[in-house]
Each structure stands twice: as structure tokens, then as C-alpha cells.
Design a protein that fits this description.
By secondary structure, the chain is α+β, with helices and mostly antiparallel strands. About 30% of the residues lie in helices and about 40% in strands. Strands 2-1-5-6-7-4-3 form a 7-stranded antiparallel sheet, sandwiched between helices.
Length: about 150
């Protein structure tokens, strides 16, 4: 078995990893062809990794011009602990108010660790204003988990 095959995550491992992580590096293609990379919070939404950002952000400008993006989620402080997932995708974007609000609730609950109540909903609505959801239509996944090597390199 190749080293690549040894460290590849299963679908279940990828799903669990994505559920537990909070920050995703998002790379879009800038006007000059250079990568534009930013760290974003993300959440699983309707079974798909998604993030939201201001509709006028550079990410959205780039994605409207070219919807291709690559995202990386990683963890681990030393080589033998490294694990990560690279998502090669195309962006599906929406600024539908109801859907953006629904995503805002999911995002709030993940990052604030509390259930959105009627009293909190206005705060989420305020955050949702002027935002676009980017849903990743995944074309390819690359994964690695160096913990599977048992400390051997």
C-alpha cells in the first residue's frame, strides 16, 4: 500500500473532521490570476460545506468572475499529527434572504455554542444582512491523516 493510500481518510472520517473543525482557508482566483486566500468560518449546511461573506467582498467579486475555488481545512501541530482535507469545488452562491438567515442560525449555533432563540434572532438577522452564502459544489476531495502512520515517516 502506498503512503498516500495509508494516510487517506475514509468518507466517514472526512465528515467527522469537517464537523469538528472551525476554520477553512478559501482560495479564489483574483482578477490578475493570482490566488486570493482568506481564512473563513464554515458550517455544514444541507449536507454541504458552506461559508457566508459580505456580498461586496473580494471573494464574491472573484467568484462571480470565476466560480472555481479550493478550500483547505487542516489540524495538527507536528508532522505526525497533521491531518486535513482539500476541497476542489465550484461555488454556488445565493443571497436569498430566507436561506441566508437559515444559514446564519446554523453558523451562530456552531460558533457561539448556543441555540438561537426568538430573542437572538434579530442579532442573526442583522449579521445576515448584505451577506451571500457560498455553497461548495465539490468536484474532488484530497485528504490526509498522518496519525495513521503511527509515528513512522
Amino acid at each position: 500500500m502506498s503512503r498516500r493510500d495509508q494516510i487517506r481518510m475514509t468518507d466517514a472520517e472526512i465528515a467527522a473532521f469537517l464537523d469538528e473543525q472551525k476554520v477553512m482557508s478559501v482560495a479564489t482566483i483574483g482578477k490578475d490570476g493570482r490566488p486570493h486566500v482568506v481564512a473563513m468560518w464554515f458550517s455544514m449546511f444541507d449536507g454541504v460545506p458552506c461559508f457566508w461573506t459580505f456580498t461586496k467582498s473580494q471573494k464574491i467579486v472573484n467568484l462571480k468572475r470565476d466560480p472555481r475555488l479550493t478550500c483547505m481545512i487542516e489540524a495538527g501541530g507536528t508532522y505526525n499529527e497533521l491531518r486535513g482535507v482539500e476541497l476542489i469545488a465550484t461555488a454556488d452562491m445565493t443571497d436569498d434572504e430566507d436561506e441566508v438567515l437559515r444559514f446564519g442560525v446554523v453558523e451562530w449555533e456552531k460558533y457561539q455554542g448556543i441555540k438561537v432563540t426568538d430573542a437572538l434572532l434579530p442579532a442573526v438577522k442583522k449579521m445576515a444582512n448584505k451577506r451571500t452564502i457560498v455553497k461548495l459544489r465539490i468536484e474532488r476531495i484530497v485528504s490526509w491523516d498522518h496519525r495513521k502512520l503511527g509515528g513512522a515517516y
